[in-house]
Amino acid sequence: MTSIVKINNLKKSYENGNIKALNGVDLEIDEGDFVSIVGQSGSGKTTLLNMIGALDIGDEGSVEVAGYNLNKTKKLNNFRSEKVGFVFQLHNLIPNLSVVENVEIPLYVHKMSGKRRKENALNLLDLVGLKDKAKMKPTKLSGGERQRVAIARALVNEPSIILADEPTGSLDSKTSNDILKLLINLHEKENVTLIVVTHDLNVSKLANRQIEVLDGKIVDSNRSFRLSYFF
Ligand SMILES: Nc1ncnc2c1ncn2[C@@H]1O[C@H](COP(=O)(O)OP(=O)(O)OP(=O)(O)O)[C@@H](O)[C@H]1O
Ligand SMILES: [Mg+2]
Fold first, then answer.
1. Measured by CB atoms within 10 angstroms of the end CB, which terminus of the chain is less buried, N or C?
2. Along the 231 residues of the chain, how does pLDDT read in single tens digits?
3. How do residues 149-173 score in pLDDT, each as one tens digit?
4. Selecting from 3.40.50.720, 3.40.50.2000, 3.40.50.300, 3.40.30.10, what CATH number does the domain 33-56+77-230 have?
5. Which residues line ligand 1 (CB under 6 A)?
């Protein structure tokens, strides 16, 4: 099995070293896997996800994702725009743009006609069941619909890896299930590697592999978790 993520002794601190967000993380993730990341608030999950997606860089150690050495490459923009799709808890949609224009954003880095860009974005909106709302502003949509737009936007570049930070955190359980089904479907059909940070035991259970972050380190990913994390 090929690893799509290889992390070695990754360290990251904030506030002049006073806060050690990551304290020597070693982690390999197989290509095409579905991994959940759990752990207490403040344990370092978002920091880790941001490093995998090159939104931030570590102080020490190495991070290799989809063949890019993120500490060394001068092509971080290519990496971000071609390899990763991000789904955040707060979907970060741009309120002044329509739904379809929001989904088109990641395509601007490619040489692509406006017509093709729109076609691609509409295909993804179709996939998440929102083609009929393409022209609306995201402020008119429900929370679940906005999250589906964010997923369409994360996927429009056909990434190899999807990084989702509490993608269902602000949604009711029915809507959460719909969003998860969507992500899992993509993972299964397209062999996309799916990494989901979650506090939700039901979400975590669906993954092939569970990883726990404790005080900035990965602890054994096969042990059973303290249930208190999820309540
Ligand atoms: N930009 C920053 N500046 C200073 N400290 C930060 C910054 N980002 C994160 N931290 C600190 O680093 C530690 C890890 O934060 P992180 O956001 O990775 O936690 P988390 O596991 O995602 O928590 P949560 O479950 O609450 O989202 C925390 O102590 C946090 O306060
Ligand atoms: Mg977080």
1. C
2. 799 999 999 999 999 999 999 999 999 999 999 999 999 999 999 999 999 999 899 999 999 999 999 999 889 888 988 899 988 877 689 999 999 999 999 888 778 899 999 999 999 999 888 999 999 999 999 988 998 999 899 989 889 999 999 888 777 788 788 888 888 888 888 889 999 999 888 888 889 999 999 999 998 665 445 444 444
3. 998 999 898 899 999 998 887 777 8
4. 3.40.50.300
5. 14-15, 19, 21, 39, 41-47
The domain spans of the chain are 33-56+77-230
Output the six-digit token pair for 77: 């923009």
Residue 105 near residue 183 (C-beta atoms within 8 A): no
Please choose from 46, 50, 219 the residue to mutate so as to test ligand 1's pocket, defined by most ligand atoms within 8 A of CB.
46
Q: Using the mean position of ligand 2's atoms as its centre, give its distance from the Cα of residue 134 in Å.
A: 30
Name the residue with the closest Cα to ligand 1, atom 24. 41
Burial class (CB in 10 A: 0-12, 13-18, 19+), 14: exposed
Query: Considering only CA atoms, which of 27, 89, 51 is closest in space to residue 213?
Result: 27
Residue with tokens 């406006």: 114
Alpha-carbon span 102 to 70, nearest angstrom: 27
Strands of 49-165 (E only): list them.
Answer: 60-65, 68-69, 84-87, 161-165
